Records
---
Amino acid sequence: MYRQVGAIQDPGPLVALTDRKIYNSSSPPRPMALLEIKGVSKLFEAKGKAVEALRDINLSVGENEFVCLVGPSGCGKTTLLRIIAGLDRPTDGEVLLDGKLIEGPGPLRGMVFQEYSLFPWRTVLDNVAFGLELRGVSKEERLARARSYLKAVGLEAFEASYPHELSGGMKQRVAIVRALVNDPKALLMDEPFGALDAQTRNVMQSELLRIWQEKKKTVVFVTHSMDEAIYLGDRVVIMSARPGMISDIIDIDVARPRNRTSPEVNRYRERILQDLRALRN
Amino acid sequence: MAIDKTLILPSFIQVMEGLQDHWQDILYVDLPVSLLHFIIGMIGGLVVAMPVGMSMGWSRMANRVFDPIVELIRPIPPLAWIPFAIIWFGLNPQAAGFIVFVGAVFPILINTYVGFRNVPRVYVESAMVLGCTRSRDLIRYVAFPSALPTIAAGIRIAMGIAWMCIVAAEMFGASTRSGLGYRLWDCYSLHMMDMVLLYMIVLGLLGLFIDRTFRYVVQEKMLKWQAGLTQ
């Protein structure tokens, strides 16, 4: 929109000058931090021994940003996500959402689990409407809203089905819209596509990006697949294990929609692979 | 010769004749009395067992308090309670109902406890991140529906035991002088084995009917979400 070259050739009115000043800075300004993780540590007590799961994690995630956490198993990425969700408490440090301290789970942070988490005793529609039901939204309205979300992921024909009648990919799609129907500020995803086959996984990733762009959400996505992380994330956070620490944060500067096999994607792949290899040694 | 044989196993004709002569007594007197015992005992069992089992499965503290009491009383056979039942309630339906209650309460309680104990963590946590954080809501929306199949199985077992307890309690005379079990024993003392067999058949049919009704209501209506292997 504000091309540097054009601005130099034509100084333009005062307004344009101020605009140029802002947009000429070397990198685009980070969006305002929505989620702030400050000095988070976590100790677990296991058989009398203390295990350090996380050590001094500092990370801030901007509004509408898509951040992926990758790392070897046991690096505490799931623990970190659970702390953000409010399901676990940090031993030290704090997590702020919109400047407010997170003290417990709540509908402002939607979460999608790796295991299939739909309530098997509720139909697809009632699963999606669950969050609204708790907030006391009238039956008519909550069903209408749940239906519109189901439609967005192409599952409107399955609203009366029970979860056991759905395929794995469909279940996770419903789980995502179940979290989104609450209109959360952040969507936390814990290897949501880990149990799906490669083909379905690719489809789900594209669909997630589409939803993310449409609904404008901040996403924190845990995965052990760097391909997935590079395809999805604005930034990839690489964690090391025992204790879990952030070892690198990489900006993925590739235009969307991304090509999974383009040379630039491969360069990021190479870099992250090197990082992970270095971690193992 | 003939008398001996019918004493050992009465013929089909004899039983049918017995039915013809006594169906009104069975239908209007003994059946309602036995069903009354059944209902008193089952309702009492549900009212006591469900809350206790739920709290034991949900809170470690409640489990610690109730578990020793439950495990102390549970091994006492329901029929051992008959003397006290008669002393406490007198010879009326409440006494037999109490025996049924003692038989029914533990299977429901233990299955409710197990069902609550085994609520998958991921359902509870999913509900919490969707805004369901109060214990009361978690029990209502997550734990109870999740435990319902186990609870229903406990109720079915309890109904079978209840039925046994009814017959035994009535045989011991722990109620008014009627009921299918009382009548069965009465006929035995008169050596009317065709009537004994008839009451046995009625007991069997009634048990079958109650179980089928229960299964229809619970399995087909309330638990239709379950993925069964058989249809």
---
Amino acid sequence: MPSTMQTALSHISLASSRLAPSRTLALVFVCGAAALASVGCGSPAKRIETGGPESITTVTQVDDQDIMGATNQMLSSLLELGVLKQTEQKPAVLLIDRITNDTTSDFPIDNLVYAMREQLVNSGQAAVNTTYGANPESKLAQDEAKLDQFETGERVRIKNDFALTGRITEVRRAAGNVRQATFTFRLTLTATSGPRKGLEVWTKQAQFTKQGTKASVGF
Amino acid sequence: MLLTKTSTSRCLGIAFSFAALALPMLVSCGSVNTVSTRTDKATTSIPFHTQVNDALLEIFLKAKDVRLMRTPGGVMKAQVDVANDGFRTRSFGYQFEWMDETGTVVSSQLNNWNQAQVYSGGEVMITAVAPTPECTDFRLKVRENK
């Protein structure tokens, strides 16, 4: 095989050495055009709307549109039922507790939680306590509160109304080449103050089932 | 190739037979039959305007009824019945955009695209909740999945 290849290559080089300069130029142009055409055949990079109709949909992974769909359903349920309005203090104070990803898909849970926080906090419907516990989201803010407490001698405690917990699970099935995955997002609010302290006051699950043999572009 | 009168009529007969067999099969393939106890529109029904840019979508997917109501949480909730008059199951993406009294679109995490599926001859209800109590109107964008 190597000897045949060498022979073939030598034939080409010999042939090109015998070509007239104008024909060599033409050959270079043709090769260049072919190279450009091959580059142009691929899909060029472009920006698309996150979670929009042109997003990639996979069968066995959690996609952007699944997270956004779950966010939408969770927020809609919270707002529709007015759970956050049933507290004495306004806005209601939330603690973000453990939300676990029990799927085989690797994705940031923060994408779900922060989207909800953005909507609820920025519209004034809830406030999130970021200085609670041994591992607070904002250590500096917690230190500042502790310093104030030390200087004034007054113990100021933020009254938390709800703790948010959750779990994301998946069920996978296959029939021949066709694969199917159902992702279930579950969130729960437990009251941490008031007459229903320690009780679940809201829960919602959002399910997304995807079926196919391979990933595709579009919903 | 020339066709005689007899062969032409025979061909037509075969074509009609095929059509007679195939059409009900097409219609019944995955179709949905719906029974409803209500014949009048809901009291929360509101008039709506549809702007159609995709003629095929207009032929097969139609907004049959639009209802708007205030929820216990104080925000508005929209329900839209989308009917599929076509012969196959249709999948589509939709996006609700909510507006306040002045007509300004209120940007929120609830403005994202969602997906729904409606079987042939069936209806699906798509719903959306307004992000704030100030939102009073909405517009709905529908795009069929290819």
---
Amino acid sequence: MSPSLVAAGVFSHKKYGENYHALALVAPGIGAQVEPGQFINVSCGPNRDFILRRPFSIFRVHEQGSAPSTIEIVFDLRGPGTRQLAAMHIHDKIDVMGPLGVGFSIPQRKAKCLLVGGGVGAAPLFFLGDRLRKDGHRIDVVLGARNADHLLNAMDLRRMASVCNLTTEDGSAGARGRVTDVLADTMDGCGTEVVYACGPDPMLAAVARICMEKKVFVQVAVEELMACGYGVCMTCVMPLRERRSKGASAGRSVVYARTCTEGPVFNGAQVIWSSGHEHVAQDQSELSLGGGAVRAGLQPEAGAGHGPPGN
Amino acid sequence: MTPDLAVTLAGLRLANPVLAASGTFGAGREAAAFLDLKALGGVIVKSMTLTPWSGKPTPRMCETPSGMLNAIGIQNKGVEHFLAEDLPWLSAQDATVVASIAGNSVDEFVKVAHRIEAANTSLAAVELNISCPNLEDRNHIFAHSASATAEVVRSVKAVLRSKPVFAKLSPNVTSIPLIAESALEAGADGLSLINTVFGMAVDVSTRRPKLAGGMGGLSGPAIRPIAVRAVHEVHRLWPHVPIIGQGGVQTATDALELIMAGASAVAVGTANFVDPGACPKVAGGIRDYMAAGGVGDVAELVGCLKLEG
Ligand SMILES: Cc1cc2nc3c(=O)[nH]c(=O)nc-3n(C[C@H](O)[C@H](O)[C@H](O)COP(=O)(O)OP(=O)(O)OC[C@H]3O[C@@H](n4cnc5c(N)ncnc54)[C@H](O)[C@@H]3O)c2cc1C
Ligand SMILES: Cc1cc2nc3c(=O)[nH]c(=O)nc-3n(C[C@H](O)[C@H](O)[C@H](O)COP(=O)(O)O)c2cc1C
Ligand code: FES
């Protein structure tokens, strides 16, 4: 379904623990169409200081009988946008664009699915879990965070999961450590066939690596900086490995895919992860070796390092 | 009296004076989910190059007060893709299309211009994005040098005879009129003012630039006064040269500032990210302003700025 602009009404404003705010929005049209893994882009108020919208994953969708479905987002306070959203009250109007992006693909036949989430990044797993369960798939969960209070709504995940393993970095709930410390054992124990992961990039990179070693299909939902959210600005790209079968450009190549329209969900095995600037140069050199769409045009001199900016 | 919003700039005929700025509207496909492209004065498509460019590493943007920095590196699929896929689609939507050409050498500009001329399409005009590094001159940006600007414009005009050519100038120079003069002497039919303003932001927790490329181009309301000034400076010297004013336009009032300073049309950039329907809204606001003030033709407003008295 193509996205639209909707004046959504705030239906409820809840808090999960100390840190997370959840806004349920009456957004006719979006609620009825949205798929797990998709997101909305929200205008946080008429503030001329910061003009861009803020992207948020769909946390849950609520059926309201025959009335339009409400969509729920959950967020922690980062900066001006989330602060303004946190001040929203019931009946306030919010300007929302959505649904945006390509969501998770759902297994065709019954599968054992493992959902892996970190911090507030786990948000889309709730909507996904509901959908997978409705379709009769087995769900297991690994949920991690800094500490017990940052575990996003672990209670609900426990309810839907056959196995639910929690990790915290300070050991205040579940196992001390990170999701990747318990991932391999959980996958082995549950006989996992498909992994769905959401959270910060370094976590996703580590999850993807473990899944690739085990030859288990992994889908990741990434969060990149977005200016437009609907595909026109090219700010949100992620380098992907692509296999090309045809003609002279056969073989491996690298493309910069837009995470807002070709993602945010990608095959984890395709993503070229970089956790900081030091990896960028490496990506760039891979790109320059790439074939296909980008091969001929790469201009490393113009593109790399501190060269002159170019739109 | 219904106000007449149609304008003609050096043969570029627009149903209304509000276009989408290059790089902020793709080739219209994504925005078409939200609006009818016919409602725009025109679409200046993302800059195209001779071969596909993959662009710069990420992060490519960061938000700054009333604006944003970007360093995309002109990621685009190349002129052949534009001619084969985008232009036919845009024409089918009845959109007025302006192509934007970029390159890293004069030869690349010329080759793209040649392809466009040879394709003999319904394209309405061409804009030259000369805010690109010239690989043949130690990465100096064409638009920062009067002679490099002239060379690109002259070479492109020599092959691109059938379309009006607008040179898009950079504000990052000591004298915009100096560069404008050489672009006009080289045969530019009009000017686009302005491209983004160079800037930079630092992440103090990592002590690194917020953009992977270091510097970036600032856009959005933060740069509007610079755009108004640039249009004013150039229009004062060459009142008959058509100018597409751009930089920070969000509302009709913003657009009218540029028009009164001397722009015959305006392009909306960053505001499209917030609202894909921004262009027709700005045009509607201009119509309202004209209706309220009894202005029949938008041309009456171009350069109407009162400087004395
Ligand atoms: C597809 C997608 C889904 C997301 N889903 C959620 C969610 O469900 N819950 C949640 O809490 N957050 C989510 N985020 C991150 C969320 O967009 C940022 O937390 C938010 O934009 C911060 O805005 P701010 O003004 O409060 O903070 P600031 O730090 O002031 O933001 C400044 C700029 O950075 C951008 N930004 C900051 N952090 C991020 C980030 N991590 N990812 C992308 N852009 C960022 C903002 O959009 C803005 O342009 C998601 C991001 C993306 C791309
Ligand atoms: C993300 C982004 C990409 C851009 N890409 C191009 C481009 O490819 N070619 C070009 O000539 N200008 C490009 N521009 C500049 C705009 O066309 C416009 O001139 C500038 O942003 C000022 O207008 P604004 O403040 O309304 O955005 C880009 C701007 C942005 C923000
Ligand atoms: S955010 Fe603009 S293209 Fe993805």
---
Amino acid sequence: MLPYSDQKEKLNKIKSGKLSLKENIESFLQRIEENKKLNAFNFVLDNEAKADAERIEQKIKAGKAGRLAGMVIAVKDVLSIKDKPTTCSSDILRSFTSVYTATAVQKLIDEDAIIIGKTNCDEFAMGSSNENSAFGPVLNPIDNERVPGGSSGGSAAAVAAKLCDAALGSDTGGSIRQPASFCGVYGLKPTYGRISRYGLTAFASSFDTVGAFANNVYDLSILTEVMSGKDEKDSTSSDNKIPEITNNLTADDRKFRIGIAKEYFGKGLSSEIREENKKLIKKLADSGFEIIDITLPHSEYTIAAYYILTTAEASSNLARYDGVKYGHRTKEKAPLTEMYKASRSEGFGSEVKRRIMLGTYVLSHGYYDAYYIKAQKVRRLIKNDFDEAFNKVDIILTPTTPTTAFKLGEKSSDPLEMYLNDIFTTSANLAGIPGISIPIGKDSNGLPIGTQLLAKQFDELSLLQLSYFIEQKIFT
Amino acid sequence: MAVTKKDVEYIAELARLKFTDEELEKFTGQLNEILSYVEKLNELDTSNVEPLSHPVEGSNVFREDIVKPSIDREDALRNAPDRNELFFKVPKVIGGE
């Protein structure tokens, strides 16, 4: 549908005059307008994008442009861009204007990418369906009666509907991989600390990561490469060496050992998803990769540990919204403490309140050891499972989600059932390892099915090499 | 350990949130459902396991103590719901409660 297959070809076409960046932006803006009902964008930066296109097109022609020159990128509305709104799809930040730019976004701008807008998401990135947004739900572009997944639903939908070349999201428990799977695009959650969190609104600080969505592995690779690296503004960002990914996108000399964990193929998994994943495993075996059965024995405890730890961190992080420094303040005339309560209660949506309450409870006197410390101990057991598995294999292959995209409203009345949708994705955030979701087929309703690949910490290169192999050699 | 409506009211107080009676009832039910699910963790013996607070375990990160400019005052105040030229303004604290 786009007149180029990836950023490399796009840049070459602009250089040679075969593609006008100005017209390219115009057509994206037109498609955004035509697809307004998807509700993928909270804000479109049309004037800025048009001005950027003219400036960057000249830079490209002059041979002075960056690596992402002309790439049109949408940014999840939890990442700050100076002087632009950042709402986190919450009423509490409806009128907030960012005072600085997130490092991940700045790195894209420095390489001459064009930011086309801020995408809708679950409020404060809390949700698996994009139904918890103060701006209303996002619709799945493949079937408008279904959810796009969450929390980065707007970003996934925008990439799938070709409203941009790529998009940024955040992933705390699957918020990039699950919507990527539901919308049939590629999405990568990097190793914790690989990409700076500076300018990302905090949800659960020891889980949060920034990553990208794209329609192909090359674009996902170049974005990951550009955004990675130590940032003095985020002390948890890593100085681990950034590998050259885009120049090494081949699995030819890599004899990957691929692990299959039985815990990820058990009951609750849709039979069509199981079948498609099994077919892929067979094709990988036929291509010469070694397939090894492994076990991740603590898998059934991931959701419980995840929800205790992330809600605890969230209840602490979201204490900053007090109606004093920024954000919504109640119109009620009330003394200070009552003002806090009224402002927060008016500003937060119900899922955010539910998580603050759960987090406050597990951290409260008398329950801290029983819940919070217990969950931290289980977090170590889960990480140990992966450490042991990665002694035997290079990559673990699992389904991304137990089902394909569900209908709007189908799970929104039962929080626990919604949480169980993250059953295959939260483990990567508990263990801090990178994970990618790649589209591998469709179910009988035409809905996309995804495979998740997981690797040891800081081995994004292997994930992208195998993904590239699957994209180029298996699904050609 | 089932959570009562009274517990939920206490937690709401700690979290600086307020709820209607109906919301309190609903939250009590939902919290109990979630908490009974997470009880699952007690199936595991973790007496010899160290808690893991951070997925990438490393040493503390230090930097030189050099004074550098950060956000200027006007930027810090620009999103304030109520302010004067130099400060955030809050409702009366003394005598209010």
